[in-house]
């Protein structure tokens, strides 16, 4: 963003939506798309309330493997660039609202404040008393974690399964209303309601940016499309925003 643009538009208020593409460069596996099976199962078979009710041990084993794997990955240059941009914009009187579809905690470890609309792998939630706990230590795939608050025998992963309502929708809507610029980074543009945020921001008058390896399903001619890997494209894009 040039100094002339900033002078005309005032302090920028960015909303950034990130998807699996930003964490792929850190080695995070998504289990979506071709070849994304786990023990012969599609993600949709182990990521639903129905699967948890019918076969909780299988669902628990799947998520315990994913939770354990978080310890072996680190934030990459794209995560770090967004965290730095958030600090710079805040210091200049602007803001960056980071919304993520990812359930890893790489944005948080990079230093960003995140609206994790699909939840977090590092959190467990009690279905009896609704308490949420951060747990980065108990990864036994054969042992459920009981609730220390109410005694319920098993906590569930605090992630949004297929058919459940995403988190933070009211906060995301409030951020969109005031945003001057919106960026979708590493998303397929196929998973709703997240995929609808790009069009909503565009309709509200925000400038829109899209970064992914290939053109996503919801790309519009009015969007500025930046193809490539997030780790290569995002740092330069962020530097332009923060000038």
UniProtKB/TrEMBL annotation:
Kindly identify the residues recorded as the active site.
Answer: 118
Does Magnesium appear among the keywords?
no
Q: Which residues form the Deacetylase sirtuin-type domain?
A: 1-243
Q: What is its EC number?
A: 2.3.1.286
Q: Which domain of life is it from?
A: Bacteria
Stored InterPro entries: DHS-like_NAD/FAD-binding_dom, NAD-dep_sirtuin_deacylases, Sirtuin, Sirtuin_cat_small_dom_sf, Ssirtuin_cat_dom
Instruction: Kindly state which keywords UniProt assigns to this record, in alphabetical order.
Output: Hydrolase, Metal-binding, NAD, Transferase, Zinc
Q: Which GO terms describe its molecular function?
A: histone deacetylase activity, NAD-dependent; hydrolase activity; metal ion binding; NAD+ binding
Enumerate the residues binding Zn(2+): 126, 129, 147, 150
Asked whether the keyword Membrane is assigned, the reply is: no
Q: Matching PANTHER family, A to Z?
A: NAD-DEPENDENT PROTEIN DEACYLASE, NAD-DEPENDENT PROTEIN DEACYLASE SIRTUIN-5, MITOCHONDRIAL-RELATED
Name this polypeptide is given: protein acetyllysine N-acetyltransferase
Q: Which organism is it from?
A: Rohdeia mirabilis
């Amino acid at each position: 963003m040039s100094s002339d643009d900033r002078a005309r538009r005032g302090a920028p208020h960015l909303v950034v939506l990130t998807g699996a593409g930003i964490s792929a460069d850190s080695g995070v596996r998504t289990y979506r798309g071709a070849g994304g099976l786990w023990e012969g199962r599609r993600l949709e078979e182990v990521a639903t309330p129905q699967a948890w009710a019918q076969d909780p041990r299988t669902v628990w084993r799947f998520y315990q493997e994913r939770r354990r794997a978080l310890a072996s990955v680190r934030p990459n240059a794209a995560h770090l660039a967004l965290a730095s941009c958030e600090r710079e914009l805040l210091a200049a009187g602007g803001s960056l609202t980071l919304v993520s579809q990812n359930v890893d905690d790489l944005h948080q470890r990079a230093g960003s404040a995140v609206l994790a609309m699909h939840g977090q792998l590092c959190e467990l939630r009690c279905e009896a008393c609704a308490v949420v706990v951060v747990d980065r230590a108990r990864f036994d795939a054969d042992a459920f974690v009981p609730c220390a608050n109410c005694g319920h025998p098993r906590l569930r992963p605090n992630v949004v399964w297929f058919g459940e309502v995403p988190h933070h929708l009211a906060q995301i809507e409030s951020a969109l209303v005031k945003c001057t610029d919106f960026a979708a980074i590493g998303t397929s543009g196929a998973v709703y309601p997240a995929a609808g945020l790009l069009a909503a921001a565009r309709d509200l008058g925000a400038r829109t940016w899209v970064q992914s390896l290939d053109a996503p399903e919801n790309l519009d001619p009015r969007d500025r499309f930046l193809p490539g890997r997030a780790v290569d494209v995002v740092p330069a894009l962020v530097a332009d925003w923060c000038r």
